[in-house]
Every structure is written in C-alpha cells, then in structure tokens.
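On clarity, I found the account of how folds are encoded harder to follow than it need be. Since the whole study asks how a given chain folds, the encoding of that fold should be made plain. For illustration, here is how one protein appears when written out as sequence plus structure tokens:

:::
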Amino acid sequence: MSITPVSPSSVDMPKDVARVVDLLFDRKAVNVNLLDLRGVSTATDWFVIASGTSDTHVGALADSVIDGLKKERVRPLNVEGQREGRWVLIDYFDFVVHVFHPAAREFYQLETLWGDAPAHVLEPASV
C-alpha cells in the first residue's frame, strides 16, 4: 500500500467511484483507501474502503453514499451490515464500498487480503 496519501484527483478512477470518495470525505470519513482490483479479482473492479469514528458515523457514511448515488440513478445491488454499524458493505457490482468501524477494520484487515492490487491511500482535496 502506498505510504504517501494522494489526492483523489490524481488517481484515474470511474466517475461513480470518484463520487463515492467525495461523498465519504464530505461526511468526514477517515483512512479512505482505493484498491484497483481489475486483473486481480473477477468479483469486482474496485474497492473503496473507509472508516467512521463510531457506529453512528459508519451508518451516516453508508447512508450518504447510498443516497448520494441514488440521486444520480445509481443503486446498489446489495447492502449488508447497515443496522449493526460495524462493517457496512455496499455492492454496486463494478465497485464495492466498505465502511468500517475502526475496531472491525483492524480485525478484518481487508486491504491485506488484496495485497497484489494497486492501492491508494486517499486524502481530502485541499480546500
């Protein structure tokens, strides 16, 4: 995984994935990572992985992504874990959004399962 955080605008990603990143940063997501799974996985092309600071924050981040993309007529195929607020998985087929509580993210270490995938640590664009 890249050590130096980069601006989302410096990474070539699909429009909907870029919108997800913007929505997450708008709601103060932390530790936002992007994994490019093209050529590594047949399940999906992109993972967006982010953390909230509490169960409530995790739920708010997930709601923001779902509602924000719904306004653009992009709807998830499936959403898992929204009630619990520890790990919300939002599947859009070509990309999957994972929003974690920090303890769950540390436990599952999802990024390490895809060590062969190009990865980017993202930081919010400068204001």
